[in-house]
Amino acid sequence: MTTPGASKDVEDMEAVKDVRDEPRPVPEEASAPEAAPVPGEVSEVAAGPTERRLHPVTPLRRAWAPVAVIAGWAVHDPDQAQRQLTRLTTMTLTAVLVAAVLGAALYGFLSWWFTHFAVTDTELRIRTGLVFRRTAHIRLERLQAVDVTQPLLARVAGVAKLKLDVVGTDKKDELAYLGQEEARVLRAELLARAAGFAPETAHEVGEAPVQRLLHVPAGVLAVSLVLTGATWGTLAAALVVPPLLWFATHSVWTVLATALPLLGAAGASSVGRFVGEYDWTVGESPDGLRIDHGLLDRTHETVPPGRVQTVRIVEPLLWRRRGWVRVELDVAGSSNSVLVPVAPREVADAVIARVLPGVTVPTSLARPPRRAGWCVPFWWRGYGLAVTDTVFVARHGLLRRSIALVPHAKVQSVRLEQGPWQRHKGLADVRVDTGANKTVTARLRDASEAAELLYGQADRSRTGRREARPDRWMA
User: Fold this and answer.
1) pLDDT, position 103
2) Which of 152, 201, 319, 386 is in Cβ range 3.0-4.6 Å of 393 for a Cys bridge?
3) What is the pLDDT of residues 94-152, one digit of tens each?
4) What is the C-alpha separation between 144 and 184, in angstroms, rounded?
5) Is the predicted pLDDT of residue 331 greater than 60, yes or no?
6) pLDDT given for residue 78 in this prediction
7) What is the pLDDT of residues 431-448, one digit of tens each?
8) According to the model, what pLDDT value does residue 65 have?
9) For residue 6, what pLDDT band results from cuts at 50, 70 and 90?
10) pLDDT for position 333
């Protein structure tokens, strides 16, 4: 695909195609009546759900906990640790190491042995703990994302980790580790159960078909990171600040304490992002948008249907000449935040249309009145506002422009705020709160326009919630 002013590297980026989902079984509203149990047999209900254990390689992961405790003690007090080690003879040190290895292996085995999980008609149960037992009851209808991740060593071992996003919880529950095929099958079953399929047919549904919408080439991703101002700003600080501190203090520790975090931040904003966003692929399926990415650690994420609260289109200054944008998300109760790391604007708009059906990104936004320059000199030109039949749109930023789109149905509350100087100039801010605990602000609007927007947005939100599609898997 080519766009005016876009780089030739973007030509191999795929355009969005219409998704023709393969025929899938329809969720059963009511399951058939169960047959009467045969005398002498134990029914599944009476015996309870079948509990399963994790992959046998899991104890190797759990065994690191005691080792980490010992290492933490040694790092916390290195002098005391060194004195203790010098007092030990070779025989005693060998015995201590053997005991530590055996203790770690025993801990890993016992933690694996006493961890079980089971899928019932209504929930996923995860039971852990030897001394202190913990049972997590995850309601299937509250599942909003089931992600499969594979760290580098897990890929070598042929296992995967299943992460569960549940409505109303900040921390993800996880099953680590499962075999690759078992993780894929279990993920498909959980999504089918969450969609309302009967337990008898959930195994037959299988994994939903995926139609690829977008693939980001490695070359385009690398160039986009080079053209990111944050990367160069952090790198410049890492090269300039330490020499200045050396001339001012002549302290090596001060220089290292400043230089290492700056170099780490520069690496995380460039190399780290490249490794994490490598081979970024977006596909559409009946259970939401699928996102696959990662060079060393592979991650397979799902953008839950109907759970997207805000979509942000980010345009860094150096990307605009090439027509590139970055698309970010706010998803209620989920950590998924990036939809498209870099893409031409028209391709990104087409992907956004899949996330927010029926939404068209406005081409022009109204600026605040010129007197807003008395409140925020020069930067007021970066603010903008547009309200359509489907979304509330606010823009801010000049160098790094960001456009936020909030569907009316996702607006939880609307507020009007005025500072003393804003009241003097007849201006006000309108803040829109979403279900992801985030706020989108239309800044420095005319006071009468802001008041009209406040009451109008409340009506649009009520209408949007009545007409919104159900937040249901495969609906």
Assistant:
1) 83
2) 386
3) 887 888 888 888 888 888 898 999 988 888 999 888 778 888 888 887 777 788 999 88
4) 17
5) yes
6) 67
7) 999 987 889 999 999 999
8) 63
9) very low
10) 62
- How many Å apart are CA 221 and CA 266, to the nearest integer? 16
Residues 6+ positions from 22 with CB-CB distance below 8 Å: 209
The Cα-based distances of 128 to 106, 161, 164, 172 in angstroms read: 16, 16, 16, 15
Of residues 312 and 16, which shows the higher confidence score?
312
Angle at 378 between CA 453 and CA 236, to 5 degrees: 120
End-to-end CA distance of the chain: 32
pLDDT per residue over 353-365, tens digit each? 988 888 888 889 9
pLDDT digits (tens, 9 = 90+) for 8-47: 444 444 444 443 344 444 444 434 344 444 444 434 444 4
Per-residue model confidence (pLDDT) at position 272? 85
Tokens 């049972």: give the residue. Answer: 135
Is 147 exposed, middle or buried, given 0-12, 13-18 or 19+ CB atoms closer than 10 A? buried
Dist CA 475 CA 217 (whole Å) = 32
Where residue 172 falls (left for φ over 0; alpha for ψ -120 to 50; beta otherwise) is beta
Q: By the 8 A CB rule, do 194 and 143 touch?
A: yes
The pair of structure tokens assigned to 280 is: 């970024």
Q: Report d(CA 198, CA 29) in Å as an integer.
A: 8
Instruction: Give 5: exposed, middle or buried? Use CB within 10 Å, 0-12, 13-18, 19+.
Output: exposed
